């Protein structure tokens, strides 16, 4: 099993946005997706996920909608808005720039 | 943009809290169910699966709160939560404190705002006319008589109007007149203001109903129109909307109602029933003398007051050259109308505002002390919270939120009290008080109340919250006794309270002594036991002077015949009635030029008037019925004139004449005692008395001296009058002592209000002293226990506390007295026969305060002395 690693602080929003860029998901599905994509390395606590979702919804990056799942239960699905997509691009760029700088420093001399 | 959008969505979220909470709960449930399902699929039993899921999920409540914080307005929710908790704590544990705060704030704001709203309505609110700052009042300035506010002569008014270019128009008014309303039920004598037809256009006012007077309304034949005052219209005609165009029978001729004036129209005063066009009798013009006329003008846009003054000075000089006999020493006084109307009330109102302001400061200081003391008492709790991790901001926010509901309630109560207080004050003001009908709680007063509330919030909430959150009031957790903490501030606030109280109480004592002095002033006549009433004799019914004199004689004969009446007389203007007739008098000096006496009150009286009013006759004789129109002109003078112009000899037989061209010599036949004619607190001029048959007046006041209670005789006297002429309305039927009393009404009100404030401030200050010392004693209980254990006597402890009290109160009183001395000049105008530095008042006020304050701290001092050292050292 891959090592469980802690989330780098501040990146949860970006990851959630990325996950939702592909398809609309509800909260549980987002945690599952993140676990899948990270090959079980990433386990997001509910206590961090939901506040993040609500915060991003307040900022207008996500919009939420109640739908019925395949099993027949009601769940709240989150989708990316246009502003959210722009935000995702911005964060992606910021992240690659940051990692580039860190790599530069780490590998020098 | 994002932040605005975010803010909006947060606001919406906080409003839709219940819905969103439900949704959040459902979301959590779904998530939990899914995880439990996964656990089951992994092989756990259903219950175990569910439990594992829940464990993983974490604290649902905490999650929900975090969720709420992320989407709503957390600080608002927190604010309301703190407020609710604070309110509950106040109601349950600190009811006394909450009540004290509520009372102090509500009464303080209520009283201050009420006085402020009266002052604002009267002194600072713009007059209800168009562009009121362009309106000016014009007065004749008789420089020779040092009378800058003398009546305007209609002839002068005409010339100003024609020659002045700095005004758009000038209007004239005569503020005394009456018409008898008959033919509509009860005959009534109406108070009439005579106005030039352009007055309404000068003021920029339109009637509520109907129209203004036509410009030619002052021409004979077109002048029988009236405008009704609003209150009169409501009272007499029930607000009848069809009144315009109807005819009223006034003085036996028909007058058409041209319109109804708006309720706040009050020029020249508010107390008139109707306004009618002023007709200037051409025969009066050449005399160029004014009687009861006043003028108002509107400045042209761009014209300034100094410009107007300069132009009118030039015109006055020209008139002085053209009419040297009358206008040589006349100038014009110009004053902005707003100031002019309220000039007599400015100083009393400002003084009242000062007094209530002092009371307000005292209440604030008291409040601050209360809040500090309570915060100190909670120091343990707050220290523990800070130690457990609460930030300064959180503590401060909590303290603010706890207080807010109390302050809001107190503020609302205060505004309600202010509204009631304003009405009560307005109801107690005399009817002639300027702008009386405009008094009310307007926007500036409400703003003032809110500002005061803000000041209270600052003092009572923000300041303690700020210093508490800084831990400033506390030393460390280990320190037990915090008696010294904040001590200086507390003592300072107490000192300030006592100083202000001393100022107020001294002022109150001075004013009260003034008032009692006024009430016992020797007026020169006997008001008790005399009945008075006024008559306006209709000139249309009694056309000639002899007819008026005969009618007056008939009245007197009838009234004297009423059983119980010992004497009766008439006079043209009652003493202390507020109006006097004054003329210049020229004394005869044989062989030399006549000496001009400045002015004297001219009283036109019947025989027996002196007896009726109780004025002593010093020498010579009284008037008799033989002093008829054809007989030689005679007069009585008062002792002041006699002593001044004929010292050492009898004035009887000497002569003078009135300062009007063409009048003959008058011989003095008697000397009488001096009387205060204008008012109780002024004694400006001497009097001369002239017989009624030689100078008939159609306005007379009847004075009747009765054997017993004068009021009981009123119906009989009025009946006697009606028996002669049923259409003769009589008015102002009053005991003379009431007339004198009413003249002091404004003073009485001011004095009682200041007295009330002084008493209230004394009470508040005493409560403050008690509270502070009770608290200090409580804090120092341990220290007293130690002292007692170490051998101090109970008396020593008592002395310790009392000495401290005496020090603070003594210094406070001293500061207060110094402040009073500093304000002495301001007080001077209110006082009568008492110096502002009157030592008796000062000592009375200080002893009162010292006594009260020491009484207030007696109880805590005794409690301190009764401390049981064992208990004191053990607990805490």
What's the layout of helices and strands?
The complex is a heterodimer of chains A (109) and B (876).
Chain A: H1 12-22, E1 25-26, H2 27-37, H3 46-59, E2 62-68, E3 74-80, H4 82-107
Antiparallel strand pairs in A: 1-3, 2-3
Chain B: H1 2-15, H2 17-42, H3 46-57, H4 60-71, H5 74-92, H6 95-124, E1 135-142, E2 147-150, H7 154-163, E3 167-174, E4 178-182, E5 188-195, H8 199-203, E6 209-210, E7 225-228, H9 230-237, E8 247-250, E9 253-260, E10 274-277, E11 293-299, H10 305-322, H11 324-327, E12 330-336, H12 337-377, H13 379-387, H14 392-428, H15 443-469, H16 487-519, E13 530-536, H17 545-561, E14 565-571, E15 582-587, E16 595-605, H18 609-613, E17 617-620, E18 634-638, H19 639-645, E19 655-658, E20 666-672, E21 687-691, E22 699-706, H20 714-724, E23 730-735, H21 736-743, H22 745-779, H23 781-789, H24 794-822, H25 824-828, H26 839-856, H27 858-865, H28 869-874
Parallel strand pairs in B: 5-10, 7-9, 16-21, 18-20
Antiparallel strand pairs in B: 1-2, 1-11, 1-12, 3-5, 3-11, 4-5, 4-8, 6-9, 7-10, 8-9, 13-22, 13-23, 14-22, 15-16, 15-19, 17-20, 18-21, 19-20
Quote the average pLDDT of chain A. 86
Q: Which shape of chain A, going by the Cα principal axes?
A: globular
Which two protein chains have the largest interface (Cβ within 8 Å of the partner's Cβ), and how many residues from each?
Answer: A-B, 21 and 27 residues
Shape of chain B: elongated
SSE order of chain A: HEHHEEH
In short:
With 109 residues, chain A is an alpha+beta fold.
What does this structure look like?
The complex is a heterodimer of chains A (109) and B (876). Chain A contains four helices and three strands. Chain A is an alpha+beta fold. The model of chain A has no long low-confidence stretch (mean pLDDT 86). Chain B is an alpha+beta fold and 876 residues long. In chain B, 53% of the residues lie in helices and 16% in strands. Chain B has 28 helices and 23 strands. In chain B, the strands form three sheets. Chain B has a six-stranded mixed barrel with strand order 4-5-10-7-9-8. A six-stranded mixed barrel of chain B has the order 15-16-21-18-20-19. In chain B, strand 4 (178-182) and strand 5 (188-195) form a beta hairpin. Chain B is elongated and about 135 Å long. The chains are: A alpha+beta (109), B alpha+beta (876). Chains A and B meet through helix 3 and strand 3 of A and helix 1, helix 2 and helix 4 of B.
